[in-house]
Amino acid sequence: MGILYALVGRGSVVLAEFSGTTTNASAIARQILEKTPGNNDMHVSYSQDRYIFHVKRTDGLTVLCMADDTAGRRIPFAFLEDIHQKFVRTYGRAVHSAQPYGMNEEFSRILSQQMEYYSSDPNADRINRLKGEMSQVRNVMIENIDKVLDRGDRLELLVDKTANMQGNTFRFRKQARRFRSTVWWRNVKLTIALIVVLLVIVYVVLAFVCHGPALPSCF
Amino acid sequence: MSFQDIEAGRPFSSRRGLMNGKQDPTQAVAAGIFQINTAVSTFQRLVNTLGTPKDTPDLREKLHKTRLHIGQLVKDTSAKLKQASDIDHHAEVNASKKIADAKLAKDFQAVLKEFQKAQRLAAERETAYTPFVPQAVLPSSYTASEVDVGSDKSPEQRALLVESRRQEVLFLDNEIAFNEAIIEEREQGIQEIQQQIGEVNEIFKDLAVLVHEQGAMIDDIGSNIENSHAATAQAKSQLAKASKTQRSNSSLTCLLLVIFGIVLLIVIIVLAA
Question: Domain Longin: where (chain A) (predicted)?
Fold first, then answer.
């Protein structure tokens, strides 16, 4: 989780605060407000157990938030800057003469929304958004690698099948050539047989006409 | 008579010249020192206003003009003092006049020293503060004193200045530490992004290798299919020729059967007769 507590104050006077959980953050925040005297601009962070209190004071207005130690510093201070701008834009000069908790009733809702935004929305930080986008690109590329590997497997199967088909067509061609040769030889044999039969018939007819097997009358 | 006349003429002329030259430079030096005193007092009052809410660009401009004015006065008075000193050395004057000139020189030195002190203080404060600050950045503050007691207040003001400088350095150190922490965290995020980009680069390279290998596979598939197509075409032509030969075989077989039939018929007819 990110930012758990937020507070806006002037000097040691609390103007608005919001707490996301039931902790003693409010008491510690007041101690911090009293422990940081003066009116100069500053950025400081105090650590307490597992939580860090980030304090930013600009133009006499103090914005404070409590975040866990995994949130770092960039997001909490971006949150403080955003809250400070919203507060000054909303209340303007009234900040310097306001009563304690004078803005708490309506500004605590804005504090809650911004705490939620900066805690869970990755778009709150450009680096986090870019990190998320790079993660998405990496995931998409990993999926692409898987798909290309599947395609490779199927291409290997296709290579095997086309190799088989090539072998089969070579064998088919060889058998077709052998079949053609067989049929041709049978044709040759039938032709020879036909010629022999015709010669025999001619001989028999001549034998009858010439009155003898040795053909004495014709020669 | 001529000797007395010459001697009487020279002392008279010399005495009158001495009287005129001696009085004018001394009085001029005294007047100059008085003016410098007045200007330095004004300058110190302006310097005491630096670092207070009254510190404005107009005040800075006035301070600058006053400094230039004092410089000019110092130059003029120094020239006149030198002139008076030359006259003292050249002519015979009484001791009271020499003592008066020496006193004027001493006063002039004192005024110069005071001016230098005020100038140094002004330089320090001009660098320490800026005009029209919206609020007091440094926690230490002091009120401007109109009483001209610069020499008495100088140690106190110097101590306050050192304290202000130390506070400012602490403040800047805090700001530097904060900015360094932010920069380090941002660098860490950018390092992670760089690492992810490196991984995506590796993935793209692997993808290129796989696609190239599969290109070779597809080439093999293409050549296999082309070879199969050619072999099938040749087999088809061979089968066509075989079909034509087989049709000729059928014709020859029929012809042979017909001839055998006729021969058999003739033999039967001859035997029957």
Answer: 7-111
B226 interfaces chain A, CB cutoff of 8 Å: no
DSSP string covering B170-211 = HHHHHHHHHHHHHHHHHHHHHHHHHHHHHHHHHHHHHHHHHH
B114-151: burial string, b at 16+ Cβ within 10 Å, e else: bbebbbebbebbbeebeeeeeeebbeeeeeebeeeebe
CATH architecture for the domain at A3-166: 2-Layer Sandwich (3.30)
Domain boundaries, chain A: 3-166, 170-218
pLDDT band at B62 (very low <50, low <70, confident <90, very high): confident
Say whether B204 and A190 touch across the interface (CB within 8 A): no
Residue with tokens 């030096």: B29
Residue A214 has pLDDT above 60, yes or no: yes
Q: Write down the mean pLDDT value for chain B.
A: 77
Beta-bridged to residue A46, according to DSSP, are: A53
For chain B, domains (ranges, CATH) are 23-129+158-216 (1.20.58.70)
Asked if residue B149 has pLDDT above 50, the reply is no
The DSSP secondary-structure symbol of B91 reads S
Mutate to test the interface with A, among B170, B173, B178, B243 (most CBs of A within 10 A): B178
Q: Where are the beta strands (DSSP E) in A30-176?
A: 42-48, 51-58, 61-68
B265 Cβ under 8 Å from any chain A Cβ: no
Asked if B22 contacts B87 with a C-beta cutoff of 8 angstroms, the reply is yes
Measured in degrees and rounded to the nearest 5, phi and psi for residue A63 equal -120, 135
pLDDT band at B141 (very low <50, low <70, confident <90, very high): very low
Nearest residue of B to residue A73, measured between CA atoms? B182
**Interface probe, candidates B191, B241, B264, B266, chain A, greatest A C-beta count within 10 A:** B241
* pLDDT tens track for A140-175: 999 999 999 999 999 999 999 999 999 999 999 999
Q: Using only C-alpha atoms, what is the Rg of chain A?
A: 51
Strand order in the sheet with A13-19: A13-19, A3-10, A61-68, A51-58, A42-48
* CB-CB contact of B142 with B153 (8 Å): no
In angstroms, rounded to a whole number, what is the distance separating the alpha carbons of residues A68 and B238? 85
Amino acid at A96: H
pLDDT at A194 over 60: yes
The pLDDT value recorded for residue A183 is: 92
